[in-house]
Amino acid sequence: MSMLNGIKVIDLTTVIFGPYATQMLADMGAEVIKVETPNIGDVSRYLGSGKNGDATMGSIHLTVNRGKQSIALDLKNPEDADVLRALIVDADVFVHNVRAKAIERLGFSYESVKAIKPDIIYMHATGFGQDGPYADLQAYDDVIQAATGTASLLPRVDGHDRPRYLPSLIADKVAGLYGAQAILAAIVHKLRTGEGQAVEVPMFECFTSFMMTEHLRDATLVPPIGPAGYPRQLDPTRQPFPTQDGYMAIVPYTAESMVRILGLIGSNDLMATPEFAKAYEDGTVFSLVYTEISKKTPQHSTAEWMEIFAANDIPAMPARDLADVPQDPHLQAIGYFQQREHPVVGSFLESRPPVKFGAAPHAPLGFAPRLNEDGPRLRAKAASM
User: What is the pTM (predicted TM-score) of this model?
Assistant: First the structure.
């Protein structure tokens, strides 16, 4: 039996933040009913190219909506709204990312949903906390990266002034992790007390917490004793090191490992120099060490260095291209990427859930649904309730 077997989730979320959160719940066995707009469906369906002429089955949709059911409902239509109300009757969780005023107009505010199911867990995946001046603003990953100072990180590293985004939907996905965590905590609370509740998961606040964990740094203290920004992460010399045939990560995280690395690359004499002594005193010794490593690593291939560092307990890894990750020997050995046959899309690669539960091994993952694939069955069920 899966970890969340018997938990029913009504999911009105779109794009990545909400669907990523509910994907994790579906992976753990929850029944997730994805409510989509008729004809078009969720934007996440169009993220990535479709296959076999079906644009609604984009490649990212295959992951972020896997294991869910799909029903298309126009909630401005009273009959469709009644179908959703019927589906809520035996639901445990109701999740949406519609702005507060709009969901209230549709008749699915927390109070309205609670009137249907008094112990419902109602999660609002918002852009910004609803008690602040940004409450009604739209939020996308770029907006949140800009607002949280994340776009200022790369300029701090390379000295180019223009703010830039990290090339990942990192704010969406981090907020999705917070969302899944919040739902699971609310489920635990409900199991203990019988109480449902409203849960707000604001993307801006979630990602601010995520980034400021290390980057508020010495500005944490009042008054500040230094600037914001974690120096080790912002050190321009902390980059993958060149080898004879590529690049690799090498981590001299402690003073002891730094000494070992310098010995392994033939740079023991650096530690006896005045330059090293001054850098150690100034707190910039790792920059000096990174620079020295980059001078010596071209002497050997990545594979040779990997063998040397593994034998001496030094953290290191090849710097791979994105396209090469599915061929990683560790991931291949554990069967992380699995080739499956989707009934509509055909062959595709699927990432297995990364977390293992000893008490309840993962059941086979369901496929991402076609738009309204489960609509007729769910409408019939709603009519019988």
Answer: 0.94
